[in-house]
Structure formats: structure tokens, C-alpha cells
Automatic annotation (TrEMBL):
This protein's UniProt keywords: ATP-binding, Cell membrane, Kinase, Membrane, Nucleotide-binding, Phosphate transport, Phosphoprotein, Transferase, Transmembrane, Transmembrane helix, Transport, Two-component regulatory system
Residues of the whole record sequence present: 169 to 436 of 436
An MF annotation (GO) of this entry: phosphoprotein phosphatase activity
GO biological process annotation, one example: cellular response to phosphate starvation
GO cellular component: plasma membrane
Source organism: Alcanivorax hongdengensis A-11-3
Domain of life of the source: Bacteria
Entry's EC annotation: 2.7.13.3
Protein name: Phosphate regulon sensor protein PhoR
Major site of localization recorded for this protein: membrane
Occurrences of domain Histidine kinase (ranges): 41-258
Presence of the UniProt keyword Kinase in the record: yes
Length: 268
């Protein structure tokens, strides 16, 4: 077969290993691309039937009278599960796009304060019955050269997680700063925390330290994988620090080239 012939030639020429390796890497790369395309296609194909199902469910829920208790409860369950599936499909599609397509539109000057402030309000609404204190420590004129939609997904996931994994009455801080190393966004909480042994694997898709919690929190298991890929596309990185039972800090580090200098700074 192909490989043997190649191996034979290679031994003859005595440059074997590198060539074989190059060949293997090409094949792996090809398989990886096929996997990514497959996930993207499946997600895309699932979207339409799901939308139709959700439409009918909503109509049914609107028309079934209150006294049909059992039927209504079944429909409410179906509705909530189809929402879950929709969130999964949409995160899978987003991740496939982040991994499998060339990054573009990466250099818009994004007004970070406004974006984070909106997210803070959403988070407060989301956690209304948990009475979290959510602090925003972000300069009003903070700007970042980035893709705004991708940034929104990344920051949104970190803030939603802080809300999800922090018990009632907890404290969450969203902080932004710049220095000579670049621009940085951190989301800290004093929530349940993570056993450090799990931290290296947290950004893997569907990796969860404690599987029993999955259905309660309602996440897709893809949030941190999305954050990681957004950071890679922006030449940045995600740093995770946590202590079990004490809380966590997730920090997005952006390289200096993504900072937006102030006119005064340019003039000076
Ligand atoms: P999901 O939240 O949907 O499970 P993510 O990829 O966003 O998926 O997060 C992966 C896992 O990391 C979560 O299941 C949770 O165990 C842990 N995690 C993420 N953020 C936090 C946080 N702020 N505090 C504690 N654990 C967290």
C-alpha cells in the first residue's frame, strides 16, 4: 500500500522519518478538517427541524387550556428541552465557525465599557432571585481592537458562568485594565470554585468536573471552549485560577497590539 511504498523509498533515500511524519500530519489534518466540517454540517441541518418543532410547540402551548394540566406539563417539558437543544446547536455551530474558518473583522475598535455594562444588566436579570452583587470596574473609555460579536460571546460566557456557579448572595467583579503586556478582562466570583486538578481540561468541549450538575445549570458544556477559541483568534489567551469552595477568576489577556491608544497618547 501507499505507506509501504513510501517507507521503502524513504529508507532508500535515508530521509525517512521526516517525510513519513509530514505525510501523517497531512492525513491527520485532513481528518480533523473532515470532523470540523461534519460538526458544522450536522449542526446546520439540525437547526431547521428544531425551529419547526419549536414553532408548533409554542402554538400548542398557546392553545391548550389551563385545565389540561398533564398535557400542558408535557408540553412545557418539551418546550424547555427543545430550547436546550437549540442552545447546543447554536453553540456547536459557533464553535465550528471559530475553529474552522479564517478569522476576519478582528480590528474594530470595540467600546468595551458599554458592552460589559449591558452584560452586567442581563446578568442581574438572570440572577434576580440570587441577589448577586455584580461590580463593574471598567474605565468608560476602554477600547479594544477585536471582533465585536466574538468578544460578546466570550465575555458573555464568562459572566453567565460566574452567575451560574455562584450561590445566592455572592459577589462578582468584572474588571478591565491595560498595561505594557496588553489589555486584560477578568471575571471573578466567590462561588463554588473548581478543583485545580480539573483546570487544564476545562476548555475542552463538554468537559465538566462534575457531571451530576449538568442538567441543573442548563449550560451547553461548550462555553469555555468558545472563550478559548475566541482568544486564540485574537492572539490572546485565557487564564483560569480557582480554589474549590472559594471562587474563581477567569482572565482574558489580549496582546499590546490590540490596545487602542488615546489621541493624546498618539500626539504625545
Ligand atoms: P457549562 O457551564 O455549560 O457546563 P462551560 O464550558 O462554560 O460549560 O464550563 C465548563 C465547566 O467549568 C462547568 O461545567 C463548570 O463545572 C466549570 N466552571 C465554569 N465557570 C465556572 C465558575 N465561574 N465557577 C465554577 N466552575 C465553573
Amino acid at each position: 500500500d501507499d505507506n509501504r511504498i513510501l517507507q521503502f523509498r524513504v529508507t532508500e533515500f535515508g530521509v525517512g522519518e521526516q517525510l513519513l511524519m509530514a505525510r501523517d500530519v497531512t492525513r491527520l489534518h485532513h481528518l480533523e478538517q473532515m470532523r470540523k466540517d461534519f460538526v458544522a454540517n450536522v449542526s446546520h441541518e439540525l437547526k431547521t427541524p428544531l425551529t419547526v418543532l419549536k414553532g408548533y410547540l409554542e402554538t400548542l402551548l398557546d392553545t391548550i387550556p389551563e385545565e389540561q394540566g398533564r398535557l400542558r406539563r408535557a408540553l412545557v417539558q418539551m418546550d424547555s428541552q427543545s430550547n436546550r437543544m437549540e442552545a447546543l446547536v447554536s453553540d456547536l455551530l459557533l464553535l465550528a465557525r471559530l475553529e474552522g474558518t479564517e478569522a476576519n473583522n478582528l480590528n474594530q475598535a470595540v467600546a468595551v465599557h458599554g458592552m460589559l455594562n449591558r452584560m452586567r444588566e442581563n446578568a442581574l436579570a438572570l440572577s434576580a432571585d440570587k441577589h448577586h452583587r455584580i461590580e463593574l470596574d471598567v474605565p468608560e473609555d476602554a477600547r479594544l481592537l477585536a471582533n465585536p460579536a466574538e468578544l460578546e460571546s466570550a465575555f458573555g460566557n464568562l459572566i453567565t458562568n460566574a452567575v451560574k456557579y455562584t450561590p445566592a448572595g455572592g459577589h462578582i467583579v468584572i474588571r478591565w485594565w491595560q498595561d505594557d503586556k496588553g489589555a486584560h478582562l477578568s471575571v471573578s466570583d466567590n462561588g463554588i470554585g473548581i478543583d485545580p486538578a480539573h483546570i487544564p481540561r476545562l476548555t475542552e468541549r463538554f468537559y465538566r468536573p462534575d457531571n451530576s450538575r449538568v442538567t441543573q445549570t442548563g449550560g451547553t458544556g461548550l462555553g469555555l471552549a468558545i472563550v478559548k477559541h475566541v482568544m486564540i483568534r485574537h492572539n490572546g489567551r485565557l487564564e483560569i485560577r480557582s480554589e474549590l469552595g472559594k471562587g474563581s477568576t477567569f482572565t482574558c489577556h489580549f496582546p499590546p497590539a490590540r490596545r487602542v491608544s488615546h489621541p493624546a497618547a498618539i500626539a504625545g
